[in-house]
């Protein structure tokens, strides 16, 4: 009985500790650096990032840096997730496609705000783990697919917004094609190992117009050889 009480106390203490860290992260790393969208700040105040990263890096979950998530991949630092989410101007009634599920964190942040999230991961192990973790956190509006995101998700297109979290050398044409009129895409573009450009694209009257947002460094966009 004493042991059970002690363990319960530890769990409560830990949950509280992470909640405090999350509050600090939102205030110091996001709000103070210019993230203004209330829905984004609210979502990131809510999503338990520490439950989506591997256990061995859990204690760093709310630190201002990317973290390893297995298969040589990384989850972006919280600020980059917030910036990319804010730039697509997320709204309740939107359907959003993400390429690069990774830990599932970006998908969860989106799912707090928009109606439907579709996310594609090329590594089966990562995709299945994210799908399981997102389900256990209670998300019902996220669909995970294993495969090469280059081809997008044609059956569910068009999308109101597309977020790409790995860097291709050029913007994949199928993703441009699957963007709805007035839709926005945020994507890092550039060569592996070099500084890449974070690009915001918008489809206006059928034309895809892009502008530079900032310099970034993402993991490379991989291609399925099949
Ligand atoms: N958004 C993720 C971070 C992803 S890191 C998160 O919130 O945790 C980028 C991810 O893109 C990696 O998991 C990598 O395996 C995946 N990836 C790379 N190329 C891909 C492709 N062509 N299709 C789908 N996923 C890809």
UniProtKB/TrEMBL annotation:
Specify whether rRNA-binding is a keyword of the entry. Answer: no
A GO CC annotation given for this chain: cytoplasm
Could you give a GO molecular-function term held by this entry?
protein-L-isoaspartate (D-aspartate) O-methyltransferase activity
EC number in record? 2.1.1.77
Query: For this chain's UniProt record, which GO biological process terms are given?
Result: methylation; protein repair
Q: Where is the protein localized?
A: Cytoplasm
Q: Where is the signal peptide?
A: none
Task: Tell me which stretches of the chain form a coiled coil.
Answer: none
**Key word ATP-binding present in the record?**
no
Q: What is its main location?
A: cytoplasm
Keywords for the protein's UniProt record, in alphabetical order: Cytoplasm, Methyltransferase, S-adenosyl-L-methionine, Transferase
Q: Which domain of life is it from?
A: Bacteria
Describe the family membership recorded for this protein in Swiss-Prot or TrEMBL. Answer: Belongs to the methyltransferase superfamily. L-isoaspartyl/D-aspartyl protein methyltransferase family.
What role does it play?
Catalyzes the methyl esterification of L-isoaspartyl residues in peptides and proteins that result from spontaneous decomposition of normal L-aspartyl and L-asparaginyl residues. It plays a role in the repair and/or degradation of damaged proteins.
| PANTHER family noted in UniProt | PROTEIN-L-ISOASPARTATE O-METHYLTRANSFERASE, PROTEIN-L-ISOASPARTATE(D-ASPARTATE) O-METHYLTRANSFERASE
The record's HAMAP family line, in alphabetical order, gives: PIMT (MF_00090)
Record's protein name: Protein-L-isoaspartate O-methyltransferase
Gene name? pcm
